[in-house]
Give the backbone structure.
Amino acid sequence: MDEIRIYIACEIYMGLHPEGDREAYWNQDPQHPIHQAIHDAIQYKRYCQIDRYFHLMPPCSPGETAPPWEKVSNQESSRNLAIDPTN
């Protein structure tokens, strides 16, 4: 449960201090912003594992009985993927 709280805190922090790449929050290069709180709270690999499976959805309206899988299947992916055909 503590990891979920840390994950949510990281998400809030990332919303307040936007970076171009999520991995930048774990960067320790002094020429770039250092987000020590994120770096110390959770490892990047663990953050990515939680981020892959943890999703929040609004609850159903009163009287609505949609099957749980319908909520998931109607969601668009938040990740943009590209395939390089030259490799």
About this structure: The mean pLDDT is 79. The chain is about 45% helix and 0% strand. The longest helix spans residues 2-16. The helical segments are 2-16, 36-41, 44-53, 68-73.
